[in-house]
Amino acid sequence: MRAQFVLSEIGVGLRRNLTMTFAVIVSVALSLALFGGSLLMREQVSTMKGYWYDKVNVSVFLCNKQDKETSPNCSKGAVTDAQKNEIRSELKQMSIVESVQFETSEEAYKHYKEQFGDSPLANSLTPDQMQESFRIKLKDPEKYKVITTAFAGRPGVQEVQDQQKLVDDLFNLLNGMNYAALGVMSLMLIVALMLIVNTVRVSAFSRRRETGIMRLVGASSFYIQMPFIMEAAIAGLLGAGFACVLLVSGQYFLVNNWLANRIDVINFIGWDAVLAKLPLVLAIGLLMPAFAAFFALRKYLKV
After folding, report:
1. What would the DSSP string read from start to end of 88-150?
2. In the structure, how many helices (H) and strands (E) does the chain have?
3. Which of 54, 70, 134, 287 could cross-link 60 (Cys pair, CB 3.0–4.6 Å)?
4. Residue 2 or 129, more confident
5. Residues 230/10, Cβ–Cβ less than 8 Å
6. Tens of pLDDT along 212-222?
7. Model's pTM, two decimal places?
8. What per-residue string of b and e applies to 106-130 under the rule 16 or more CB within 10 Å gives b?
9. What SS3 state is found at 284?
């Protein structure tokens, strides 16, 4: 009988405050969708870092004849065979170096033609204008500064270039987008909490007569508060359910059927990462409104 009464009170409360309940559901859905999306974005960035950092190299570009007039580091002329052998020997002795590959000017010209063959500049270049280089694979890509410190400015070395710098800008952009999503999520979460508190407050005020009667007949505080808490929890759970639908839809339509077909160089996260976040979203959607309603009732419902 008591359970039936609580359920009937929950239904009455949801019908009386239908508009505010709908607003709570929408705001909770959007905030939790952004929360889940930010968690997935963070995991995607971490996956991309592991993938790209494992592939980036440090390149030691050597001076050629043309660099003598254009680069201050090559003022003494083109690199000599002795200098190349010395650099190769030192690189192979470094414990942080996994492998060393030497690229001749002819190989550099061939690779340039393959990548930028449609460029007008490609037709004006000759192999002797391309730089020889050492392509160095590191065991730990984060220690690229060791190579830079050891070889930058040495005779015969025009430049030491770390490819990690090229992808760091991308990761910084993605991290910035993630922080922006977290900021919007926090704002939406605050709005959702305010709506929950106001909904509970209005619901408690509209049923003050019933709660007064319940107090007179000896009902406990928890028994009186339970319908209000359950109303907020149900609204939050519905919002979390919609948030899960948005996350699943985003993975299926946006990632799997659009981005994955257009961007081949990124290893996107799979369904396992998405499904792992859904229980957390549902738990937050259920517990957050319930606790908000509980603390709101302590102030607005004097029992």
Report:
1. HHHHHH-TTEEEEEEE-HHHHHHHHHHHHTTSGGGGG--GGGSPPEEEEEESSGGGHHHHHHH
2. 11, 4
3. 134
4. 129
5. yes
6. 666 666 666 66
7. 0.65
8. eebbeebeeeeeeeeeeeeeeeeeb
9. helix
First to last CA, the chain: 22
Contact 161, 61 (CB under 8 A): yes
Residues 6+ apart with CB under 8 A from 223: 2, 6, 214
- For residue range 175-216, list pLDDT tens digits in order: 787 788 778 778 877 887 888 887 777 777 766 666 666 666
> How many Cβ atoms are within 10 Å of 76's Cβ, its own excluded?
12
CA dist 214 and 245 (Å) reads 40
Joined tokens for residue 161? 């270039």
By residue count, the chain amounts to: 303
pLDDT-derived band at 96, boundaries 50, 70, 90: confident
Looking at residue 303, what is its pLDDT?
A: 45
- Region 219-245: mean pLDDT is 82
Instruction: Write phi, then psi, for 114 (nearest 5 degrees).
Output: -70, -35
